Amino acid sequence: MHTRREHLAAIVTILPSIILLGIFVYGFIANSIYMSTTDWGQTAAMSLDPQIESVGLDNYRDLFTGFLNVRFRQDLVNMFFFTLLFVGLSLLVGLVLATIIDQLFWGETFFRTVFLYPMSLSMVVTGTIWRWILQPRGGINVLPTLIGLPPGKFLWLSSRDQRLVFDWSHLLHYACWVLLVVLAISAYSQWRQGKKGRLAWHLVICGVLAGLIASRVLTRLRLLPYPEMHGFNDALWGVVIAAVWQMSGYTMALYLAGLRTIPRELREAARVDGGSELQIYRYVDLPLLKPITASAIVILGHIALKIFDLIFAISSPDHYPTSMPAVTMFLKAFRGNELAVGSAIGVILFFIVSLLIVPYLIVSFRREE
Amino acid sequence: MKRFCLLTAAFCVVLVATLAVAAAAAPQGELEIFSWWAGDEGPALEALIALYEAKYPEVTVINATVTGGAGVHAKAVLKTRMLGGDPPDSFQVHAGQELIGTWVVAQRMEDLTWLFQEEGWFEVFPEDLLALISTDEGIWSVPVNIHRSNVMYYIPENLKKWGVEPPKTWDEFLAIAPSLQEQGVIPLSLGENWTAIHLWESVALSYLGPDKYDDLWEGKLSWTSPEVVGVWELFGRILEYTNPDAPSLSWQQATDMVVAGQAAFNIMGDWASGYMSVTLGVKPEEGYGWAPSPGTEGVFMALSDSFGLPVGCPNRENTIAWLKTIGSKEGQDTFNPLKGSISPRIDSDLSKYDVYLQSAARDYQSNRIVGSLAHGTVANERFMNDFATVMDIFLANKDPQAAAYAAQAVAIQSGLVK
Which residues of B touch A158 (CB under 8 A)? Predict the structure, then answer.
């Protein structure tokens, strides 16, 4: 039983942090959302009492369809590919390292420290180091000359080549395809697990999406009056390598901890049933590591979506092939004085990160209850 | 009683007046100077502050520097401070539209015309320069240095080896560039985005000439006019002779390529002189040579760091004393030889400067002066920020027509064209 006194004490203890969070986190989020619906950033943006007028959602519409905001759209595409590659490769490298270290009979602490160490560096340091290593005239590209081969020619961070090029004005069409593929995979896993009810729903939505694509309505519904090509920039590889180098040690530590929590009995039972080591890994270890993967995706994902410092250090701020929304947000607001547009980019980033974090929070809440 | 009150009041008035006179005569208290001058440029600022402290020993100077990003970080911090109503006593700012477009239009700066009159600065600063840093309403800052933007650097010995002369026009450059390429030399070295804008302004000046170049910034020449499209076309042809890894190089690395004999020419502001002679130890004239960038002989494209008087700064009198110090001949000749720039005053003591700076000062005193785009003299910050976008799109697709239209849109949005 809690007494009233204890309740009061609890409230008084927690109150300062609630007030501070309320002002400095939620208050500022609300303020940013408000600012993003104004035109703050006209001529006298920096006056003590700037003339601010409400413009509704114009800033957002302009970011997604405006002629001059092509940079922001390329940023979004860069962010999408960067997040995918960075999270995917970090998980893969981390898992492989953890599995190998888990098998070692000696030197485990040593290797764990070695691989975890890059995480203790700040992103700015990582960016600066990799900027040197990836210099087209030095670093990695001259390595082959040590064994008599011609130097590498790949422009790690400065390439302007694009792959997977698509027309932004058909964005809805491509988004529909992505959704279809995701749902189809999900439907397949429902079918494997024998959840008939959910499977039916998935199939219905898949059918609707396929119908939409087949009807070509979406390709006629153009976002822009002219084609605008975006794609995956080769220059991103340099950034991905640096980021994976920094964070894969962290996923390794997560997976290693996960592998340690798997009860010995489970593996032994599998062995008794005649499972090979590979089968044990595939059917015992990997499924039990799923919750680790889920939290790693959330942690790495929000780092990737908000990435700023690494880009600023490894590349120059105005180099589009490696630019990200957070960089453009900073430049728009504090270099170009367009504070409202900067706020709008911030709000968009906030919603994208929420899409990743909120479902995770809901799931963990339910589990606790 | 009444008489007593009057007496007291009179006494108070006299007291306040004495204090005010005393304050005006000998500034005391604090003076906060906000800048991004640290590292290589730190000693020049420190020398200037030492001079100020020797003149006004009662004042404690707070040297508030925010380093990094060529001023990007400092400007961001400054903006949050100004918006929060906490201006520093004086801050470093590129003279011209970077100051005017952000701070003067927002009515955050005091007009300094009276100070220029009092100190006789109308006689010592060139008219072209005063025009660049003023509006119809006043003069807004005291320029402390002048850098030249349109300078082409090369190593004379290397040019002899490759059998070429420094080009006087871009046509000459385009004529000799293929032979340099055949010899495995990059004709023109280039660095990241802003160095491309830096090159662009030199190309624009040569293609348009100084009058039309000025018209562009006064909104009298349209960005979509055939002349400006022609600038982009010429710029595109020049880019074909630059290094493909430009985006990952800093300006120093682009200069290094010339010194190392990998590239023939580099167009950079004259801070590259200081970099070569001080950091790399290459002697001016014997080691490295320079010339106005092709087609800009007789024109001095200038940029200038300056300090102003923010409205509501906490120590106004001390700031005025600071402005007097940095505008004085003594102050400027203390600061500039160390900074590697020349004095904006035409009466500066040239014996204190090195060979390169003496030649720059002679050009400055005799040439037509125009302002730099890449360094904030002729366009406001919003234009500059979005022009970087236009530039990077052009570097990717090399489409002059599209660049011209995009630049026109930016000029309209940023208020450059009414």
Answer: 244-248
